[in-house]
Here is the input.
Amino acid sequence: MSSMQMLTKFESKSNRVKGLAFHPTRPLLAASLHNGTVQLWNYQMGTLMDRFDEHDGPVRAVAFHPTRPLLVTGGDDYKVKVWDIRPQNRRCLFTLHGHLDYLRTVQFHHEMPWILSASDDQTIRIWNSTSRQCIAILTGHSHYVMCAQFHSKDDLIVSASMDQTVRVWDISGLRRNTPNQQQQNSFDSFEAFSTVKYVLEGHDRGVNWASFHPTLPLIVSAGDDRQIKLWRMSETKAWEVDTCRGHFNNVSSALFHPKHELILSAGEDKTIRVWDMSKRTAVQTFRREHDRFWALCAHPELNLFAAGHDNGLIVFKLERERPAFALHQDTLYYIRDKYVRQHDLVTGSDVGVLSVRKLGNQYIQPRTLSFNPAERAVLVTSTADNGIYELATLPKDAGGELRDSTSDGKRGAGYSAIFVARNRFAVLDKNAQTIEIRDLNNTLTKTIKPPVQTSEIFYGGTASLLLSSPTAVVLFDIQQQKVLAELSTQVVKYAVWSSDGANVALLGKHTITIANKTLTQSSLIHETIRIKSGAWDDSGVFIYSTLNHIKYALPQGDNGIIKTLDQPIYLTRIKGKTLHCLDRSARPRTIVIDPTEYRFKLALLRHNYDEVLHIIRTSNLVGQSIISYLQKKGFPEIALHFVQDKNTRFELAIECGNLDVALETAVALNRPESWNRLAQQALKQGNHKIVETAYQRVRNFDRLSFLYMTTGAHEKLAKMAKIAEARGDQMSKFHNSLYTGDIVSRITVLRDVGLYPLAYMTAKTNGLEDMANDILDAAGLTEADLDDVPTFEMSTLRPPPVISGTELLQWPSLGSADNFFERALIEGRLAEGAPYVNGTDAAAANAALDEWEGDNAGPAAEQGDDEGWGLDEAIVPQAEEEEEEEEQADLADSAPGISEADLWVRNSPVAADHVAAGSFDTAMQLLNRQVGIVNFEPLKPIFLSIYRSSYAYLTANASMPPIQIPLRRQPTSSKPSQVYPIVSQTLQAITSGDLQSAYRAVRSNELPEAGKLFRSILHSLLFVVVSSQTEAKELRDIISSCKEYLLGVSIELERRRLVQDEPENVRRSLELAAYFTNCKLQPAHHTIALRNAMTVFSKAQNFATAAVFARKLIELNPAPKVLASARAVVTAGDRNPRDAVDFSYDQFTEFNVCAASYTPIYKGSPSVTDPYTGAHYLPKYKGQLDSLLQLTEIGAPASGLVSYV
Amino acid sequence: MDSEELYQLKSHFYQANYKAVLSTPLPPANSPSYLPSKVYNLRAQLALSPSTPLPAEESESLALRAVAAFSGYLTAEDKAAALEELRELVLEVEGEEELGWEEGVVRVLSATAFFREGETEEALDTLSGETAKKDLECVALTAQIQLCLNRADLAQKTLESAKKWADDALLLQLVEAWVSLRTIPPNYNSAYYTFLELTTVPSPSAPMLANRAIAQLCQGNIPEADGSLTEALEKDPEDASALMLSARQGMQGALRKLEKIQGGHPWLVAGREAETRFEEARGKWEVPPLATASA
Here is the structure.
């Protein structure tokens, strides 16, 4: 009859376990071992958190402090030790000396600073843990005291002894006298505080254990007489109530179940037994093969027990905790304490509607609940008697006397029972492996043999079931008795459907499979911690709970943590930010969560960029994890938006070419290397104003002068000259005079530095005779001394005059990639009124110069300490320190580093680079996002070939596998953030190779071959990596051109098929010939299309239109023979200006040809495009696979191919 | 100091020229070079044909016992049990003092086996003893394992500290070449010159020629790499590393040959895994119906 289960939650192997204690709030269990070790386990994670080894000899006694992070232990070394268990300060705080023999049990008082200890020295002692003094010694037992415990509320102690008695002690006196009491020395005075209240005699041998009932005046004791005795006490007396017999060897321990009317005991007969407290009958026995049990303890709050035996310990539950529940719209039906309750999630009203007290047996909670809203009926199952179910209707109105589910009398045997339709339910008989379909009268209508070994059935959509087998889940149609789909999974324990029924989450112990309703698509999530429950968010995100977390899973499998949990919960429904759940005692609770992170990721995945922006702007989503997620998914531009750290922000901004952000962060960082990097990047993009600012900041006078020269900023050059003067820098003075064309100043500089010959020659060649003579004088020479010097022609070396003052203009600069987010985010910035839109203005630049001019006489070191050169000196010692630290780093540290492939993926937004790294998933995501590809099958050879060519293998040590050498794009990559894989597909190779063959095939009229070649070229072009924007532009042109060729070839091939298959359809043939000429081919090939059209139209006697093509042909200036025939056609058209066959072709309006239907889409008509090639399609093809390449989804959103880093 | 013959033998061995090692006759049994030469001879056999067990031989020498145990490991069905034997040998050398080069052999072979079975930490641990740090072969193996862990930084450190006492040893130069191909920034030139020097001798080994080709590939000198590769294949048309490079360029013949000679080559394994991964990744995308005129 009874089938109470022992559900093992955790098990460990060790030396004999003598004592156990649960932490009241955290998932910790302390175990004291016979070998002297005290272990601290996290039973949820299954990890050993800590161990304490200071006792000498066996440790039998162990207990946690109820509120503080303390542990007390007592050993055979007569010592009581108190430990701080916080990992950072774990140590023995103090040791209490005084006992004269082994310690048996210890305990902290629940509110006083007292420690209770029981010892073989026949005494029980109470210690003050603050003063660390013994404050009471309870004497009276005449043999070992095996156990002593405080009462959980009253001032009582119960103890058990080998003297065959159980004693109850009154310690209320102790509490009264505790505060600031004087140090007492004599035993007599100790005893004054505590008295024996009752001596319970009845055991025939020594008593090993005695414990109080948590709330009732009851005591349970266990002894070597193999008996468990139940005692009751009143204010004045205590007496034996009854004895439980059944153990056939010494009973080590016995205690009350904290929640139910049960007693648990463990003994040396290798059993744990459960007894009914009121009937004193055995309920269940759990046996172990070899291990005698020595210790038993119950968690104070949870349905959790631990038992210690010869070879370790087990943590177990006696019943399933997971409450049975079913959700219907806003109402949750669930079972608590054997009542079906109806809980309104909106109002919170909660009423009992049905009793299920008689279902199964009293110790077992119902397992599942299925609700039928049409009939307001419930199906409840229980594991009792190998599985039973009951069908009952709920009353229309709550209130009044509750009916019991048995009163309907509709019941039967079966492991699972669920409603499958309004008037049908299915019952699984696990042993017979049959599924019965029954109506609401519980009448059998059909019996089905499931196609697989079925352990559980779930709702599978109308008239369908999900069958869970050990290796798969099968979607089974009940009516047709047919397998609709099968998905291999680990054992599935629960199935959760989304509210629209489009998706299902299949929960196993450690896996979640998220699938669509036909089980055709799925993703798998693996968790190391046990998965407990889950529910769907309205937006299609699956929220689930594990033992210690609430997490989310996106449809494609990305997951993350939302919240940490102390105790498991069972999710029932998610509505917005509110998460409804049942706690482990089946009480409804709500938890508010922050859904921002997963909504953000979901929006990214669904390309819902407006939503992404909305979230960016309205929430404060930050954190390293979001940033790395964005980088991994290829959205560096968004990542930039989240980065707070200035350094990273600067690096990202430089990488994206976002000068505004780069300038802003450079100002904040104000480091020379940042300014130099900014200057370089700004120079690349042609933003000379930012270059100017940067040069000014780092005082790069030489470059600044040169910049002013190239921008024609004469005024500023003049200032630079003055600054050079002030700085006394002759070389700079010389440069500036050269740039400004100021000859006098140039000569002066040369003269000042003593280069008289040069000064003289300069003056001479510029016709400045006076100056030349002055120089001669200064050098102490006369013209006569210069007879042997040749004369030179006049030369001024003047810079060209300024025609257009570009100094004040903003040059057209290279835009970075045109990207939805950058635009949007920059717009956002503008709206905030960001100051750095086009570099700092000229006035500010001038001011900076003026400032230098003014203060430059003083030494540089006097400047603000992070401006100027002082900074460089500070850096040197710092670098040395770092080196020293590295030296000390442990060489044996062998944690794996970041693989080259990871770097590639991280560094590059180019799909080809992700392919090379073998990260096909992200490569596909990039291709989908950039050019809308959904069908990757045709790209498989390219994927594999690129991946295979990105590594080489270097022979190294004997018998070792070779070293993998990643092949990089540039032979010099000085930083991990700059490495990219080797380029397998180059534009040059394709244009000079395959493309030429394709053109040849067109010329020689091998159209099927040409089509194949263009298709393969277009495939390859997806993976081309170019090195400049010019090349990127060229690539786009080639893609577009190949598309035109492929379209043209396809149209013509279709026309040829038509001529063959439907020769009577002349009209269509004419149209196709005309459309072919619309494709933008090179002139040489365009003539082919025109000649073709000309011939086809002439043959059909459509002379007028034939002449139109002929004229276009003549314009292209073809070969003489062709020219002659074209002229003939024109003449024929003039002579006979009409068309014999009517057809649809408007030669005067621009149009594109739909690549699927080969019909014209005239300018202004709606159309959708292929996101990759830009081929046009009629709107009705939106969402379908493109017909030219069979790669992309027509009309899908796309950001454009990135082929350039 | 090693004799001239032993030095030559080691050079061949380090350059993976195992055939040359095998064709070198052993010195007379009473020569001090006999035992080390014998050990290199046997290790070369194992490197060339790992699946052929060595003839059983009783020996006192720890090095020879290690070679035998390693051979046992290579051919064993139950790898775990075979590792145990090596572990015991390591324990044995740890108990002894002053074993000299034999300790290095025990450690290198054990660590090789540990690494091959995925026991990376144990492998590194085996190579981290005080004596092991002064043994070049241990250093070389440590560096290779660190490179496999993507820890070029650690490999660099291992190299630098060994350079302090064995700057110009051939093996260390090889290690430097390996490391310099993996660091960021890399030093492709130095690796290239090391391999160039080793291959411009009268009879270069095919693996070194293939390594030269790799260094050239890294430098971006594709035609030169092709030249080295052709030379390597001429030298030994069955050299796995050369075949891999040739197959990488799309040579189907080389691919088939490599599959036959060394089906477990990491490149082939990675390629096979990539195919599976591609199929998995592809399966996540739903392909809509084709747009056609009839639709």
